[in-house]
Amino acid sequence: MAQKATIYKAEVNLANMDKDIYLDQNLTIAQHPSETLQRMMLRIVAWALHANERLTFTKGLCDEDEPELWKKSYSDEIELWIDLGTPDEKRLKKASVRAKQAVLFCYGNNSAKEWWKQHATKASKFDNLTVNFVSDDTMEALASLASRSMQLQFSISDGDIWLSCGEQSMQLGLECWQEAKH
Q1: Distance separating alpha carbons of residues 4 and 145, to the nearest angstrom
Q2: Is residue 1 in some structural domain?
Q3: What is the largest CA-CA distance in the chain?
Q4: pLDDT at 63
């Protein structure tokens, strides 16, 4: 019998002073049976960094035609495509062609850095692609905050990203490997 997704609920309070976005949002996140806590928490971080009322979690791992998150226009055009991991060039192209803006969050110190060596030149062809790297230490810290019911506070100012959950607080270190050119 196939395992079912584990459901997590997060009350998110977001104060993004850099973009002048202030939100209180309740998120329901389905963790795929093959997905780690680190990856699931990174999806929440990706949502917070690009928060918008139309930014939604997709089927993700269950559907290779969809990213992890996307924002669609009212006419169903993909405005923002957010993926996680180390996709092949075909996937990068798909994201960049189908969406106005594509964002990738790479993780896994060794695998991501090796992947970037092989794909940096190819990725640079896509003007609307931003590539961020998240260290193993940050991923571990994110997993330590995970619980089935979470209250998360994000504070973003001058590029610094702080995440608090209860008594725990951490600064999220993202390394930008490529910034979209527009």
Answers
A1: 22
A2: no
A3: 49
A4: 59
